[in-house]
Amino acid sequence: MNSQIHNLLNKWVSKLIDADNLTKRLESWDKLVVKFGIDPSGTIVHLGHMVPILKLKQFQEMGHKVILLIGDATAQVGDASDKDAERPMLTRVQTRHNAELFIDKFNKVLDLSKIEIYWNSEWLDAVNFAWVGELAKNFSVAEMLDRDNFSKRYKSGVRISLQEFLYPIMQGYDSVAIARKYGACDLELGGTDQYFNLLAGRTLMDAHGLPKQDIMTFDLLVGSDGKKMSKTSPNTIAIDEAPQSMYQKLINIHDDLIVKYYELATDATLEEVVVVQQRLESGEHPNILKIELAQRVITMYHGKPYDASDIGNIEQQYLSLYFLGRKQMMSSVIFWSTDKVYSSYDDTGKLPENSIFLSDLLKEILFCTTSWDVRNALAGKSVRIDGVVIEDPKYLVTITVDGTLVEMGKKKAKRVFL
User: Fold this and answer.
1) Which pLDDT score is estimated for 353?
2) Which residue has better confidence, 326 or 236?
3) For 232-348, where are the alpha helices, taking DSSP H only?
4) What is the mean pLDDT of the chain?
5) DSSP bridge partners of 240
6) Secondary element (H or E) of residue 414
7) Which residue among 269, 289, 324 closes a domain?
8) Does 320 lie in the same domain as 345?
9) Residue 233 forms part of a structural domain
10) CA 13, 14, 16, 19 torsion-angle sign
11) Is pLDDT at 399 greater than 70 in this prediction?
12) Angstrom distance (rounded) from CA 231 to CA 209
């Protein structure tokens, strides 16, 4: 097996069905119809969303037929695969608007002129009630309840609507529709949370006398804090996020996520990922690898690395922590300018020249990028001014002559001077 096919079958990949069949076809240089479907349930595209998109790029570069399926119909129902409660219904207008934004962002990685894009409303809107019954008879209630999230909700008494049972049937029928258009739908990609839905496609294809698609799933990329990456959480790293913000988040990921991020969030080959693992095991400081990771990801989505000198040369700050052997010390010194004008003022209409509201300060020194980040940090009681925990975003911070120490969590600390 050549290295290109080896990376295609293993990079980012969690599970393959049918691995032997897919390997044989790739080694025979068959041209496959490869499908990936995504529901535009929001407008944010984060690094986790891009894992299967990067895989599509690999297939595209090898000359396979790539199908990007936009679930404008399924998004209205909502996939419950990773949810512990029912999802709110979206309108068709919302799903179409979100989809247009998604497609524009995917253009950062895919050559959209060489792929086929479909909307599943094209065939799902035409399915009548009788046909829904024909599709549904291929699945049992027991099979539906066997899904991990449905099983947990059922046992805990959390409501499961019948509409949610329809979702995997709708997604499965997408594969039938694509196979009828092209004579086959050879492979479908998806996250590990999509496994049941992808199997539904095989079930329905078999029921309609079509060759069953192979399945390729990917591990889910966790957020910068090690928890599930969510579109509404501060741990999310969006692909169109400002380079400065991406840099700050990536150099602050947990050390044990470095290899996983190289594997899932970059275009590094498996061989390159092994080298990263070896460098860590040999004792190289994690911060050096985080800097390289951040610059690689930023270059992928912004076309060039981030110039950290704009914020006091963060790279040098992180390297100095290593050479000094200091684990939780101040990462930098900030010299404060009183010439800046901020959106917040005191009752007199202006602030004392040596003062600033805490919410503005946290964003100015890059501990937070948005007001949402500020609220979360303060709610978690992780912000300290000269050692005192502060929870009020309107707290007026006075910058003293000796410098004011600002800390957030265990790893972020800066002393601010006038």
Assistant:
1) 64
2) 236
3) 243-250, 258-265, 270-281, 286-302, 314-324
4) 84
5) none
6) strand 412-417
7) 324
8) no
9) no
10) positive
11) yes
12) 39
C-alpha dihedral sign at 30, 27, 22, 206: positive
pLDDT at residue 403, rounded to an integer: 72
Report the distance separating Cα 226 and Cα 209, nearest Å: 44
Any idea what the Cα angle at residue 326 is, between residues 254 and 387, rounded to 5°?
A: 85
Q: CATH number, domain at 391?
A: 3.10.290.10
Contact 215, 194 (CB under 8 A): no
Domain for residue 223, yes or no? Answer: no
pLDDT band of residue 16 (cuts 50, 70, 90) is: very high
CA–CA distances in Å: residue 157 to residues 61, 77, 86, 193: 48, 21, 13, 22
In angstroms, the CA 29 to CA 139 distance is 35
Nearest alpha carbon to residue 199 among 243, 143, 281, 275 = 143
Average the pLDDT over 248-277 and give the result.
93
Determine how many CB atoms are found less than 10 A away from the CB of residue 79.
Answer: 20
Three-class secondary structure of residue 52 per DSSP? helix
Stretch 348-368: mean pLDDT? 77
Grade residue 388 by pLDDT with cuts at 50, 70 and 90. confident
How long is the chain? 418
The token pair that represents 314 in the structure block: 């963060």
Does residue 235 lie within any of the structural domains? no
Q: Tell me the per-residue pLDDT of 143-163, one tens digit each, with 9 for 90 and over.
A: 887 776 777 877 888 887 787
Q: Is pLDDT above 50 for 103? A: yes
Rounded Cα gap, residues 332 and 413, in angstroms: 7
Question: Is 278 found in the same domain as 389?
Answer: no
Using CA atoms, how far residue 229 sits from 98, 235, 393, in Å, is 19, 6, 25
Contact predicate 219/14, CB 8 Å = yes
Q: How many CA atoms lie within 13 A of 235 on its CB side?
A: 13
The two structure tokens encoding residue 174: 């997408």
CATH number of residue 78's parent domain: 3.40.50.620
In a domain, 227, yes or no: no
Q: How far apart, in whole angstroms, are the C-alpha atoms of residue 416 and residue 406? A: 7
**Per-residue pLDDT at 78:** 67
From residue 400, how far is each of 66, 122, 334, 343, 397 by CA, in Å? 60, 64, 12, 22, 9
Q: How far is CA 198 from CA 38, 50, 212, 367, in A?
A: 12, 18, 11, 40
Which pLDDT band holds residue 309 (cuts at 50, 70, 90)? low
- The answer to whether the bond into 346 is cis (omega within 30° of 0) is no
